[in-house]
Amino acid sequence: xxxxxxxxxxxxxxxIHANAIAEKIVRFIDNHTTVSVERSILRLLGxxxxxxxxxxxxxxxxxxxxxxxxxxxxxxxxxxxxxKNTQRNLADFLVAYQAGKATLAKDPASVEETLAILKPWxxxxxxxxxxxxxxxxxxxxxxxxxxxxxYVIVATGNIHEDVIQAxxxxxxxxxxxxxxxxxxQSLLDYVPYGITTEGFGGTYxxxxxxxxxxxxxxxxxxxxxxxxxxxxxxxxxxxxxxxxMAALERxxxxxxxxxxxxxxxxxxxxxxxxxxxxxxxxxxxAGILINTGEDNYLTTSDAVEEAHTVLASQFINxxxxxxxxxxxxxxxxxxxxxxxxxxxxxxxxxIAQAEMAREIFPDAPLKYMPPTKHISGNIFRATMQNxxxxxxxxxxxxxxxxxxxxxxxxxxxxxxxxxxxxxxAKTIQKTAKSFREAIDYREGGxxxxxxxxxxxxxxxxxxxxxxxxxxxALENGVFAGVKRPFQGGKGLEGVYVKDKDYVNPIALRxxxxxx
Amino acid sequence: MNIKPxxxxxxxxxxxxxxxxxxxxxxxxxxxxxxxxxxxxxxxxNVVHQEKLGDHFSFYIVYGSVGVSIDLNDIHVETxxxxxxxxxxxxxxxETELDRELxxxxxxxxxxxxxxxxxxxxxxxGFAGHYGLERYKHIKAVNxxxxxxxxxxxxxxxxxxxxxLLVSQTVTQKDIHLKNLVDLVELLETEQMRKDVVxxxxxxxxxxxxxxxxxxxxxxxxxxxxxxxxxxAVLELIxxxxxxx
Lengths: 515, 245
Description:
The structure holds two protein chains of two kinds. By secondary structure, chain A is of the alpha/beta class.
């Protein structure tokens, strides 16, 4: 559907710029690995568990590797050598390793040997992911997918309480449940272990918590006759590890942005780009839909003046996603309804932005975020603002509809807050069902003019970023006005140049799959 | 003077409340909600709405009157009024009274990932038409962003020779922000810096009373903008300067 009559040539040049921007970074990515990439490989090979100090074994092994050499040769080669030297299978080796009866090999195995020795565990890990993917497809084929899926968040800190709230939300009409992570988890350079019942502003993302919630949602899916999707956050220092765990435990959607961690969590840009690439490869292989975080630009910067940075970032995220084999149907590009309602015609600007995203990325399951910045403690006014947002969602055919809460900025949502939000969204979906088909926007009207202006500005920005390079652009504070140095931020010490004999046996097989 | 909530008639005491009960939406739930409202002290509670929230929860909206009233003469509030000043007036005041560049260092500290509050006060653009501190002449505003550890915050404050520290706390689950705010005060005292800075807390759930209680000089909640914070800080610095002589 074409309501804005956008200039296709301008869109095409945006894509060309974005592709060139990503291309340069991909060359850098290809020459590097990180500690979290290496730990993800171990996780996918089946290494799990923690030592008595709650340190994950994957961290122990990678740290051992770092004490001897660096990660540039790849943890897989050391693991393969260890299995060969000790004549043990992986499970037995890990038991012995944990008991202090075996150590990580001092010298790595050759690449050929590594691939041969680890083959059974590579096969097993990939098979498990494929099985989960097939199971998800089966669910989706059985129950179908709503055109606009209702997305709500649970965040009690206690996974058992989350389960209760998630099931209640699903029964009330939610299609997608996100378990928000404990504040600060993105800055941990390890993934906590086991079932957790305490968190701050959210619940720790652990593999055991993933499994528990997936089971609970499968249960409720059968009851309500809809496949309830589960979301978590592949961001922060353990981005690819979360993706690995999500692939194994059949999460359906991951927040997975190529720039977000750099800008908003001050994670080093080199680390982030390398990590996002492997995490997205895993997501592509596992059929996990990604959500990008462009909405965040608007909570920091002005939503009217900086709207083009959202579009520019969507193009960049698309380019990176393509490089990691994610199909358009898995690219849940993000944006948000964040314009100050005091601004005249702000609703029309929101429509322009949302419709533009819809038309430029027709196959992407766009993720639309609710107002937050201009929500005060006035819950009654917030209800009205959220209703406007819900109407914009229907009018512009957004795919993933994250519901606004009237108690935004007061507390994490009560059960009833979520219920009222779902009720509002569903009522508006119903009352305005065919609105989109019934309307056209007038040539030269506010909506047309605004969309063109934003697209044009995005093109200019992308052209500039291509010239300076994305690394420099981030150093100059192009996005959200935040400046990040190339060598600054958290996690740089975990970045390594690949040795000429480096191997990532999982990535190798995944790449093969896409060829 | 005794006052009560106002519905449509003076002293009618009308209030609205809503809550969820962890039971099914049926006649028992309805009566439970009514009795609960009565126990809360509502006179003639009227459960105007019951709604099913899944199988095991139900939601209620209740109207009623409160029997109690408040005598305004008994209320004592430490009012915290900063004079309303414009950016230009504040700049002028710094020029004439302090005659130097002031350093404001701000951050969202601890694990708090929200920058909305600190950005609204500090960033050039400001919030709702109120320019942020970055735009002020004679003020060097350094926004360290979110998730800044207290130790790092203090280190930067020392390095930048901060006159004013702005601490933003948004996330409030399990009151983690309180502990974090107190920790900062203790750290500043250990470093013997507490007296050298004007220490200000801000955030959606921060009040001036709370901030004072925690050992801060002032606290700013919702509907406060850069000029409120700047006016307070500048006047406080002038007051301290005069005290020295």
